[in-house]
Amino acid sequence: MPEETTSIDYVMEAASGPHFSGLRLDGRMPSSATAAAASSSADSTLTPDFLPNQPFVIGVSGGTASGKTTVCDMIIQQLHDHRVVLVNQDSFYRGLNPEELERVHEYNFDHPDAFDTEQLLECTMKLISGQGVHVPIYDFKKHQRSSDSFRQVNASDVIILEGILVFHDQRVRDLMNMKIFVDTDADVRLARRIRRDTMERGRDINSVLEQYAKFVKPAFDDFVLPSKKYADVIIPRGGDNHVAIDLIVQHIRTKLGQHDLCKIYPNAYVIQSTFQIRGMHTLIRDRDISKHDFVFYSDRLIRLVVEHGLGHLPFTEKQVVTPTGSVYTGVDFCKKLCGVSIVRR
Question: Does the pTM exceed 0.70?
Answer without folding.
Answer: no
